[in-house]
Write a structure and sequence with these properties.
Layout: E1 3-5, E2 10-12, E3 15-22, H1 26-36, E4 43-44, E5 47-51, H2 55-60, E6 64-65, H3 68-78
Parallel strand pairs: 1-6
Antiparallel strand pairs: 1-3, 2-3, 3-5, 4-5
InterPro entries: DUF4031 (IPR025109)
Pfam families: DUF4031
Protein name: DUF4031 domain-containing protein
């Protein structure tokens, strides 16, 4: 199982956020997030939003640190990218 996380550089709701993704499947991503204790409401289209204070927890649990550009590249190559504004089936 390999999941990836980008640096917490995305502002929102008074915090900085990271994106947690899988390049294999959403099932893999959901399992990792559940084991980490991330609430399902943090899932948005193709990633989990992870607050900066949980970044180190995700890395300790096995998430591989990558750049934000790498997150997009990995999702696109895996066919798992779900851009905003497009209707998606689950």
């Amino acid at each position: 199982m390999t999941v990836y996380i980008d640096p917490p550089v995305w502002p929102g709701h008074g915090r900085m956020w990271s994106h947690l993704i899988s390049d294999v499947s959403y099932a893999e991503l959901h399992r990792f997030a559940a084991e980490l204790g991330v609430p399902s409401r943090a899932f948005e289209r193709d990633h989990y939003d992870i607050p900066s204070h949980r970044y180190a927890d995700a890395v300790r649990a096995g998430a591989v640190e990558v750049s934000s550009r790498e997150v997009v590249r990995l999702l696109n190559e895996a066919g798992l990218r779900r851009p905003k504004g497009r209707t998606q089936s689950r």
